Amino acid sequence: MNTTAKKQAISASAISRYLAGLFSSRSLGTDLGLLIIRLVCGLMALHGWAKFDDFADGNGEWPDPFHVGPAVSKGLTVFAELFCTVLVVFGILTRPALIPLIICMFVIVFMVHGEDSFADREHPLMYLLLYLALFITGPGKYSIDRFIANRKV
């Protein structure tokens, strides 16, 4: 077999393995996928930053679904959407940080926008589902949580 035929056989074999991997049930990179999901969840920090800016300036009306006062409700939302999101992105205390985010998105979807159209609830619902998935799976190995857990004492 000449070198060209060998290269073609190796190429065909590599392509065959790649295609077989696409249709298999084994993971192609669960930990990398979890990192990507955490980074996508980081987009919530943009919403949190805008609310933090308004909160610091004392601007705007805010829903108060639990009747604790608009300032407290907005403060809790900023805490979840900004500070907890940063923890999730870096994988620091991921599951505890997800709890306020899950509660916040649940309140937004089912209480604050409960009577609104699906289009108004779509984004917070998608974040809610991502947060629930991360809560179930954990942050993955590309996280500070995993680094701390694997550290020798």
What does this molecule look like?
There is one protein chain. The protein is mainly alpha-helical and 153 residues long. Helices cover 74% and strands 0% of the residues. The protein has seven helices and no strands. The mean pLDDT is 85.
Helix content: over 70%
Number of strands: 0
Order of helices and strands: HHHHHHH
Largest sheet: none
Rg over alpha carbons: 22 Å
Taken as a percent bin, the fraction of beta residues is under 5%
Span of the ends, CA to CA: 56 Å
Which word captures the global form? elongated
Uncertain regions: pLDDT < 50 for 5+ in a row?
A: none
Structural class: mainly alpha
Output the number of helix runs.
7
Rounded average pLDDT: 85
Secondary structure layout:
Elements: H1 3-22, H2 30-41, H3 44-57, H4 70-90, H5 94-112, H6 118-137, H7 144-150
Helix pairs in contact: 2-4, 2-6, 3-4, 4-5, 5-6
Quickly describe the structure:
The protein has 153 residues and is mostly helical. Helix content is 74%, strand content 0%. The protein has helices spanning 3-22, 30-41, 44-57, 70-90, 94-112, 118-137, 144-150.
